[in-house]
Amino acid sequence: MRLILMGPPGSGKGTQAERLVGILGIPHISTGDMFRKAIDEETELGLEAKEYISSGGLVPDEVTIGIVKDRLGESDCNNGFLLDGFPRTAAQAEALDGILEDLRVGLDAVINIQVSEGELLKRLTGRRICRGCGTSYHMVYNPSKQGDRCDKCQGELFQRKDDTEETILSRLDVYNQQTKPLIQYYEKQEIIQHVDGNQGIEEVFSEINWGLGRDQQ
Ligand code: ADP
Ligand code: ADP
Ligand code: ZN
User: Fold this and answer.
1) Among residues 166, 162, 175, which one has the least CA distance to residue 39?
2) What does the alpha-carbon distance between residue 142 and residue 159 come to, in Å, rounded to a whole number?
3) Mean pLDDT by 10 residues, the chain (217 residues)
């Protein structure tokens, strides 16, 4: 399956993506994760992306489109993929259509997770990430059993630098101005499915599976 997970920062894209790729057996392609890895490794891409990410802005389209094009060309994407956090601008959505056309494949669905702004703020300020495997936890909604260590890999949990209230507000602005209009873009292609992301993690997962025509389990 070829899927896009869309939604504002904190809507649960990463959380749902991890579960979906587990049952679908396709790679999870998160541009945010790719940028953070590049920043940790201090590569050229990381150095370029760092200032945009820390201010809550978007990394320039040409850079972002380039890394996604390369990634989708890798052989593990032949049987499908799940894009999380891409596309985020009209130029990225149009470029993605071109990349898919060149690969002679099409999208099966765009899943749009909708969450109210008040809830997004609570989710993002309480988010903690594992330094080892990248799993997202939440201090209140989805805590690790061991407090400050990851249940899967014992890695240390940390708070992303861009998960401060000030940066979150800029990221929500950027979402509203540049990414939200893509809902209409995919509505025109008649492949978008809206999911009520204000529910618990399990309920959202069930709704996504239902939308994909999959009986869970
Ligand atoms: P995104 O990738 O869209 O930015 P995440 O998956 O990282 O979002 O989720 C943001 C935060 O909210 C994390 O701390 C995560 O544990 C928590 N979270 C995700 N889905 C839910 C949910 N349905 N209910 C409550 N908290 C959630
Ligand atoms: P979240 O879903 O919580 O907003 P991500 O991990 O998806 O966060 O992205 C973190 C940051 O990485 C974004 O705020 C942005 O600066 C950058 N980024 C991620 N994906 C893209 C993209 N498709 N285009 C431009 N910048 C991106
Ligand atoms: Zn971990």
Assistant:
1) 162
2) 14
3) 98 96 96 95 96 96 98 97 98 98 97 97 96 92 94 96 95 98 97 97 97 78
Residue 33 is assigned to a structural domain of this protein: no
What residues are in contact with ligand 1 under a 6 Å CB criterion? 7, 9-15, 123, 126-127, 136-138, 141-142, 200-201, 204
Catalytic entry in 2, 123, 127, 128: 127
State phi, psi for 110 to the nearest 5 degrees: -115, 120
CATH number at residue 109: 3.40.50.300
Which residues form the domain of 205?
A: 2-26+79-115+167-211
User: How many structural domains compose the chain?
Assistant: 1
Its pTM stands at 0.96
Catalytic residue flag (residue 36): no
